[in-house]
Structure formats: structure tokens, C-alpha cells
């Protein structure tokens, strides 16, 4: 697939339904994890114009910053700390309408107001998290969860063997 995206406007669901096949095309035949995560972050950031979009990967006992789009970010996050570390520890997607109300929130940017963090699983184990931040309160919902989880399922399993 050409590395051009067709960006559309419309409902959130319409936008996901348009971008998912394009992400799938970017991932097809590519088994390099960093390349795949980089293209996912770029495609989602371009489509949705989120404040920050990226991945953290489990390295020993902490999450380490991986491919991302947006301003500089926290480099390392302990398990159970902040939204990302909590999603890792709980092994579930977390949607936070107002990060200021989340106990232990790690403020990498004062512009971040809401967040969604989706665990990345390989062989029934969390190997990383997808993190999206918005400068708007209550920006993410179950629609985002549904489609972001679907996007993560598109990553070729061979990619994860590099971890």
C-alpha cells in the first residue's frame, strides 16, 4: 500500500471504519514491530488530531517509551503508576474523562485533559500499551476502546517475537 492516508471527517465511528483498512494495509507484510507501531501512531494522530499518541513497551519491570507522535513524553513508567501503568497492572483498557481526577496521574504534559490506554497482548501477556491523550475533557469513550482494540489485533504476531 502507498504510504498516503485518506483522511475523512464524519462521526468517530465513520472515521475508524475508514482508517482501519488503511492501517491494515500498512501492516500487511511488515513484521518489524517498531515500524508497525510507528505507522499506527502516525495514522491515528493524522486521522483524529489527538494531542499525543504512542506506545509504551514492557521492558523488565517498567514501561519504556516506544514509537509516538506529539510532544516529548515520559520515558519510563512503573507498573501500577499513572493511567498507563494501571492499565498494564489491571490488564484492561482504561478510559479517563479527566486526568486530574485519576489518582496518581503522571502529568507528562499539562495540556493533556483526558486519556485512553489500551493494553497490547501477546501470548496472553501484556507486552505494552497504546496511549492516547487529548487536550479536551471526556474525549474518549467505548467507541474508541472498541476500535483501538481492533486495530491492535491487526499487528502481525511475528512482530511481537522481537520483544
Could you explain the architecture of this structure?
- The protein is an alpha+beta fold and 163 residues long.
- The chain has one domain: 2-Layer Sandwich (Beta-Lactamase).
- Helix content is 35%, strand content 25%.
- The protein is built from five helices and six strands, in the order H-H-E-E-E-H-E-E-E-H-H.
- The chain has a six-stranded antiparallel beta sheet with strand order 3-2-1-6-5-4, with helices on both faces.
- A hairpin with a 2-residue loop joins strand 1 (52-59) and strand 2.
- Helix 1 packs parallel to helix 4.
- The chain is globular and about 40 Å long.
Instruction: Give the rounded overall mean pLDDT.
Output: 92
Strand order, main sheet: write it out.
3-2-1-6-5-4
From the N-terminal CA to the C-terminal CA, the straight-line distance is 26 Å
How many structural domains does the protein architecture include? 1
Amino acid at each position: 500500500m502507498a504510504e498516503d492516508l485518506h483522511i475523512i471527517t464524519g462521526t468517530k465511528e465513520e472515521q475508524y471504519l475508514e482508517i482501519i483498512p488503511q492501517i491494515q494495509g500498512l501492516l500487511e507484510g511488515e513484521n518489524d514491530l517498531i515500524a508497525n507501531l510507528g505507522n499506527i501512531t502516525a495514522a491515528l494522530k493524522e486521522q483524529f488530531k489527538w494531542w499525543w499518541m504512542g506506545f509504551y513497551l514492557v521492558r523488565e519491570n517498567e514501561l519504556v517509551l516506544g514509537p509516538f507522535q506529539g510532544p516529548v513524553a515520559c520515558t519510563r513508567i512503573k507498573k501500577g503508576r499513572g493511567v498507563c501503568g494501571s492499565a498494564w497492572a489491571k490488564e484492561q483498557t482504561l478510559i479517563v474523562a479527566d486526568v486530574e481526577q485519576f489518582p496518581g496521574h503522571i502529568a507528562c504534559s499539562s495540556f493533556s485533559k483526558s486519556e485512553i490506554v489500551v493494553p497490547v497482548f501477546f501470548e496472553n501477556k501484556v507486552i505494552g500499551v497504546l496511549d492516547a491523550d487529548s487536550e479536551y475533557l471526556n474525549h474518549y469513550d467505548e467507541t474508541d476502546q472498541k476500535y483501538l482494540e481492533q486495530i491492535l489485533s491487526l499487528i502481525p504476531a511475528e512482530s511481537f517475537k522481537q520483544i
